[in-house]
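Hey,
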Amino acid sequence: MVINDKTKTDVQRAQLIVAAVTLEFGIAYMDVKSKTRGSNDMCFARQLSMYLMNVIYGISLSRIGRTFNRDRSTASHACNVIEDYREDPQLDRKIARLEAFLKASRSIAVSEELSL
């Protein structure tokens, strides 16, 4: 894989998202980044991380797949699964909280770049 600025940024965003998701759901960071599927909880956390990369940062499914060592179809499936899970009001509130946090951290990062 070629490492360029876009790839580095994708990896950094994935790290932030995975850290937030693992804190919210009590799952080990390394489990989510694992190359194996893992438990249902680990799989859900990975799917949610992929979904948030797409929704918050607008990163393409192909790039999300590469970031998680998966393919584009896996990232697409993850987004569809999370959309279905959002029917649950309690889970939807947790996801909305994560989205708000990530949007706030995104705007902080942008304002820091502008001040440099």
